[in-house]
Design a protein that fits this description.
- This protein has 283 residues and is mainly alpha-helical.
- Helices cover 71% and strands 0% of the residues.
- The chain has helices at residues 2-9, 12-30, 66-102, 104-119, 122-132, 137-146, 150-163, 167-174, 179-187, 192-215, 227-235, 243-270, 275-282.
- Helix 3 (66-102) packs across helix 10 and helix 10 (192-215) packs antiparallel against helix 12.
- It starts with a helix and ends with a helix.
- 37% of the residues are buried.
């Protein structure tokens, strides 16, 4: 672990990504302390007002404070992204590794389900389901998870087929250890580097998916707010009220860039063939 942290710490881009992500999390958690209005409050005397002392990020067409909405929208997008990323990685690890270890009909059936779901037009189903259920963010987490684990599970299955022949797995079988305990203790932990990188990059993919759905009106619905809904509201006023689009777009860019840098840093630190790992080994 110390070696991995040392490799990660030598990557300036990764450290920059961690710093940016930490600042964004702090902004989403503590940002409400620096405003006296809630994101749902409407000031009808200040409709579409540009940024100023009373409204730092300005107001939208309904008189809502854009700063308060940005804090809540970033928090909502982060909660959705982290929940979906964790759930999809857990599902992919258990299903992929379990299918590889059990083999036989279980493996064939699991792969058939994965391949079927991979060709299903998931975006359309996500849009229809989330819209029918009134855009509840918890439903959005559920449907994004249901249609988001297959690709990672396919990779986990491919790597696990070689791990199931390792000596420590065979020794556990000889000692009578139950199959799911073998999967949990001897196969999944050896895929840790892959799962950690996928967990990090999955946050980026989920944020973009949630933003796209909310932008099109199929994701988070009013009175709730996310970065996607803010971008949708500001897309029609880019020339007349650019701040309505600029602030959520800036937060989205910073979030995706930070997590991409962290993901790249983790991949370099955990991959023994990477440049950073090689230089670390030389030292």
């Amino acid at each position: 672990m110390t070696l991995y942290l040392r490799r990660f710490g030598r990557n300036r881009g990764a450290l920059l990504g961690v710093a940016l992500f930490a600042l964004l999390v702090l902004f989403s958690v503590l940002g409400d302390l620096f405003t006296h209005v809630a994101y749902t409050d409407a000031d009808f005397t200040a409709l579409t007002r540009p940024p100023g002392p009373s409204h730092w990020f300005g107001t939208n067409q309904g008189g809502n404070d854009v700063y308060a909405q940005a804090v809540h929208g970033l928090r909502r997008s982060l909660v959705i992204a982290v929940c979906v990323s964790v759930l999809t990685v857990v599902l992919a690890a258990v299903i992929g590794a379990g299918a590889a270890y059990l083999g036989g009909r279980v493996e064939k059936l699991t792969l058939a389900v994965i391949h079927f779901l991979l060709v299903v037009p998931s975006f359309l189903i996500l849009a229809l389901v989330s819209h029918r259920l009134a855009g509840d963010w918890r439903v959005l987490v559920l449907v994004l998870t249901v249609f988001g684990w297959m690709t990672t599970a396919r990779v986990v299955w491919s790597l696990s087929t070689s791990l199931r022949e390792r000596d420590y797995v065979l020794a556990a079988e000889f000692m009578g250890v139950r199959p799911w305990r073998i999967v949990a203790r001897h196969i999944i932990p050896n895929l840790g580097s892959l799962l950690v990188v996928n967990l990090t990059l999955g946050v980026v993919a989920t944020v973009l998916s949630e933003t796209a759905l909310s932008f099109l009106g199929f994701g988070v619905q009013p009175p709730d707010v996310s970065l996607g809904t803010m971008l949708a509201d500001g897309s029609g006023t880019i020339t007349s009220a650019p701040w309505l689009f600029a602030f959520p777009a800036g937060l989205l860019v910073l979030l995706t860039v930070s997590m991409t840098l962290v993901g790249d840093g983790l991949r370099d630190a955990l991959d023994p063939t990477s440049v950073s790992a090689a230089s670390g080994g030389a030292r």
